[in-house]
Amino acid sequence: MIKSTPLKLVSLASAGLLLAACGDDAAQNGEDASIGDQLDYTITGIEPGAGITETTEQALNAYDNLSDWELETSSTAGMMGQIDSAIANEEPLVVTGWTPHYKFEMYDLKFLEDPEGVYGDSEFVHTMSRIGFEEDMPEAYAILENFSWEVDDMQQIMLDAQDMEFDEAASDWIEENRDLTDSWVEGIDEVDGQSIELGSFPWDSERASSQVISQILEEHGFDVTVSNVDPSILFQALAQGEVDATVAPWLPTTQGAYLEQYGDDIVDMGVNMEGTVIGLVVPAYMDIDSIEDLTGDTD
């Protein structure tokens, strides 16, 4: 069984408090209350350490119309609870969002256009390792270098994992995609119990990727440990050689600052996924299309 270190998340007050407050504001201000008034000028985020959290703080400064808005950090689970409640009542909501994520399979959502380009274009997920990893574990390095898949693959595991454990969802996906996973290990010798520590982030997208690559490595004879930590800690651990490798970093925007800080002491093994996106997300029924629409105008 793949071992994971305990996950420490920053907790937030009840996920329903914001929507309750939004409902009160809407009632006080009438049906024509602005989106900002209805939401108390609050964007719902996820964990404070997430790259999208830092990027959204930059967006608040980059857009003049967001000067009165605040980002309320939460957790991914808390954000999902608020999406579920808002859509059930067809209420407005603005959240930090990214693909791949199963919320886009469950709900009709849309990204707001980003004219200032704060969130960047499409993101790429990279595989990285500590310096010396290729020499120490050439077989693991080769497998990780071959690891490459699609947004839909990750999103399918994330969706399936809502009804089962992530390791089971990853195992099912592997069995259904043997042609692909076999290509990652083709011609690479098996090992006998060599230990390897992978770093990852405590979010569903990275739970999916770490479970898949961990199970492939275990099938090839490795004893795998996965450490789920904050991005800043992971990059530092890679730079200091405390973690062997990761398939989790999103670049160039989401974790780009950490790569600038630690990149000289980390091996970037290349892209394992293309076409990921980050930004501000709203329910599709909201009559806005751009971040610039988040003003005091009526909805």
TrEMBL record:
Start and end residues of each ABC-type glycine betaine transport system substrate-binding domain: 31-176, 195-296
Keyword Kinase on entry: no
**Residues making up the signal peptide according to the UniProt record:** 1-26
Which PANTHER family does the entry link to? GLYCINE BETAINE/PROLINE BETAINE TRANSPORT SYSTEM PERMEASE PROTEIN PROW, GLYCINE BETAINE_PROLINE BETAINE TRANSPORT SYSTEM PERMEASE PROTEIN PROW
Name the Gene Ontology molecular function terms of this record: amine transmembrane transporter activity; carnitine transmembrane transporter activity
- Chief place where the protein resides: membrane
GO biological processes: choline transport; glycine betaine transport
UniProt protein name:
Glycine betaine/proline transport system substrate-binding protein
Keywords, alphabetical: Cell membrane, Membrane, Signal, Transport
- Show the InterPro entries listed in the entry: ABC_Gly_betaine_transp_sub-bd (IPR007210)
User: Which subcellular locations apply to this protein?
Assistant: Cell membrane
User: A cellular component term (GO) from this record?
Assistant: ATP-binding cassette (ABC) transporter complex
| Presence of the UniProt keyword Membrane in the record | yes
User: What organism is listed for this UniProt entry?
Assistant: Alkalibacterium pelagium
